[in-house]
Specification:
The protein is α/β, with parallel strands linked by helices. Helix content is 34%, strand content 22%.
Length: 343
Amino acid sequence: MKAGFFSHIYVEKDILEAPKTQELISRLPNSEIIEINHYKDVFCRSRQDFAKQKKSPALILAHKKGELIYEGAKVCQSFGNAHFYYTSCIMNCVYNCEYCYLSGMYPSGNIVIFMNLEDYFEEISRTLLKNPMYICVSYDTDLLALNHLTGVLNRWIEFVDTKENLSIEIRTKCGNISSVKESLKCCKHPERIIFAFTVSPEAVIERYEKGTASLTARLKALAELQELKIPCRIAFDPMIYLPDWKPVYEEMADIIFKGRDNYPKIDCNKIFDVSIGSFRISDTYLKNMRRNLPSSAITQFPYDNDGGVYHYPDEIMKEMEAYMLGRCRKILPEDKIFLWKEQ
């Protein structure tokens, strides 16, 4: 994230003087501070241009009220966890992936950080009295990519270390773990913290994953985490269709599973598990994405609608997923491979 990325910071007046708010603001000394009553006054206002805002987003600091933890969505993988949840302490992402459902879910391209993380932790603590929890904490943003600014991921790592029966997944396309390295080194229960790296061929990254780390950088970060004994999931999800998708994905699979000069070496024996899934999205989100990105090859693709979820036509979907499934089966046992539609 470039210096001066957030030219404006909108702050709810009730938390403006809070120490954590002031601490975060101090890290962005060149940003203009604007006091607001409620984050929705800015984030949810009408007639916003999501695509334009993504090029230069504002930052919104807020206090989240109401429900903080949610049950996992049906289009997401639970990885065999009976008590599967997700939460969003940050809304929107510094990256700008063309296929990202956030452009269909949110009315704004600005980023919201909820400063009351302690309230999230309290709600989790209450739920843990009833059952174990597996929580995806980085669905609606990339916590690792923002951590050098927010420190939020460090606080999640420290919190998990104090709770039994709690595991978290951090989904990321970031290639730099320096901001969490010390926290992870001090972690007593690294097995409860799972980093899930979304991996894509370089052709997909260059065309559709604007601002994200290269495949090389992602694999380097993954290899560093393996050295720290942190569980790392590889997410071949979402797989994005290209006319020449097969040789493109074949090359990526060879780089990851066989190794190649000039790419970091992954220890396949230490891969926690893999997830596989082709691109799919709810019909409501796609409708909004098509309006926001009318020239996008991804949003305008002629998908099939199956029960309110758009996906590639069966022939394409099955061939792509079967190919990656076959490659993974040559490397990993069956219980480490998760195909999304089987959930």
